[in-house]
Amino acid sequence: xxxxxxxxxxxxxxxxxxxxxxxxxxxxxxxxxxxxxxxxxxxxxxxxxxxxxxxxxxxxxxxxxxxxxxxxxxxxxxxxxxxxxxxxxxxxxxxxxxxxxxxxxxxxxxxxxxxxxxxxxxxxxxxxxxxxxxxxxxxxxxxxxxxxxxxxxxxxxxxxxxxxxxxxxxxxxxxxxxxxxxxxxxxxxxxxxxxxxxxxxxxxxxxxxxxxxxxxxxxxxxxxxxxxxxxxxxxxxxxxxxxxxxxxxxxxxxxxxxxxxxxxxxxxxxxxxxxxxxxxxxxxxxxxxxxxxxxxxxxxxxxxxxxxxxxxxxxxxxxxxxxxxxxxxxxxxxxxxxxxxxxxxxxxxxxxxxxxxxxxxxxxxxxxxxxxxxxxxxxxxxxxxxxxxxxxxxxxxxxxxxxxxxxxxxxxxxxxxxxxxxxxxxxxxxxxxxxxxxxxxxxxxxxxxxxxxxxxxxxxxxxxxxxxxxxxxxxxxxxxxxxxxxxxxxxxxxxxxxxxxxxxxxxxxxxxxxxxxxxxxxxxxxxxxxxxxxxxxxxxxxxxxxxxxxxxxxxxxxxxxxxxxxxxxxxxxxxxxxxxxxxxxxxxxxxxxxxxxxxxxxxxxxxxxxxxxxxxxxxxxxxxxxxxxxxxxxxxxxxxxxxxxxxxxxxxxxxxxxxxxxxxxxxxxxxxxxxxxxxxxxxx
Length: 684
Known about the structure:
By secondary structure, this protein is an alpha+beta fold. The protein folds into 4 domains: 2-174, Restriction Endonuclease, CATH 3.40.91; 178-332, no CATH class; 341-540, no CATH class; 556-672, no CATH class. Helix content is 47%, strand content 14%. Strand 3, helix 6 and strand 4 form a beta-alpha-beta unit. Helix 19 packs antiparallel against helix 20. Residues 225-233 and 677-683 have low confidence and may be disordered.
């Protein structure tokens, strides 16, 4: 709360409560400690419409939770259309990797964020933590839906979740706040288990389950690991199945499991028939998404959805040992479902490919889930092979299909699978395609230390797109020939990757604009084809690859700061008030890697005070009280943090909170005074 120290007591308390609400929302979503939740709050100037962030690193897909909190003593926490726009603008900055646009408190969270993006395209949950009891304004709700649809135009990446007073009340009180749900349910064709513990299973109708959810809402999931996620792709698929094939819903659904303190029959209950049962302390521990999707489908089209039925298990805890209910909850939510790729492992072509890898290449090819993936030098898995073959396919759309889902779900559909593997996949083609994808990724990773923002995002997410273009520029006609000198082609990859990335960025910017999402360009089948055509046209023209300009690579952006002495410009104009506190934000990927932990150890390291009357050394560092130039101090800090001693442009790293970097401010001054920004001596 140091940044709020000068506020009046009442305002200080309101800010404190709002930040506490943001931290509590993090706890609700990611079940972390209070201290961990607290340090994930970065509310304040330059929070970009977001107050807190938490990241769950997972394979194959990570999850990012972004929180905007609004406190109200009267439980009327507002969230208007302006807040929606600010929140989604902040999200755009994250997708574009513009991390230095966020405040210094955010910077310590960047490594986790980077790790999530390294694994793939994460799922993002935007959490509105609102101290209120009434629904959002219809116009705000409509704008939220519109913004989410824009983000999810290619595939579901972003979802919105609203937490209100009831959710916070339940979270604070824990199990004591979980409503004790006593209800009566009807099971058709029920069967009873009595050994070792009492349980029943049978079929419930969609209308009965919809009514149950309608009455108790989230309280029905009090013991579940996670509430139903309203906008997940799974939830939407469940809802669509019930509306499109209601008569098949029982067969397609995995069913629902409920724990109960007690289960008592109402009247005479005959196994195999219809029975009514009174439940006390009932809670859905598996199938929360199924229940909420049934309710939504029934609300949308009751005439169709009423046909649906679902299998329900009721487990009584009255004679169970302590902790058994928690075991049921955990186990039923962590079992691995059968995926389409599991069936493809039985395909004869895959079995033959595994044998050919061993006999012809002396390498391993893993086709079953759960088997140990070989060391990269000694082989690959069916997953890596499918991804590589999709990238090198003549059909550029398959690279986009592969990017849409971390499990490559789109590649296992029969027609797509046949297109990438063919009836008799060639081991040499498969392995060489994998080697190419790895070589492209290595080259992109090497480039990324010098890339910024959108360029970094393109190098990260555009690996399959770049691989597709590089493959088409190589000599690959004899790729299936055992004697083909493939190493000679791989040697061309680093230079080709650099040129290809430059043309890809040019194509995306020209086709869709510099504010477009890189993710959309690599996941949308229509967009990826247009980008490929434009990039190949540039490469085929034999013109020099376009230079990456300001905002795309470190050297170009730092050069702007050198064009005119920024310090002189700012001090002459007295643009910054004396004693203004500036904050340091790592600018490049290597700096974030080397300095984030060091800065977090002592917050004073990231702060300096400005003076207009101290010549070329206007910054007084809080750590030692000495005066430095922005570049000199940035260089000293990096050396102390990592031992790396290199020249650094400090004006793009030191920020006036809420206003911009020293470079931004100097640029504004020069423009306002009509100074030619291309003139002037190099300097800080």
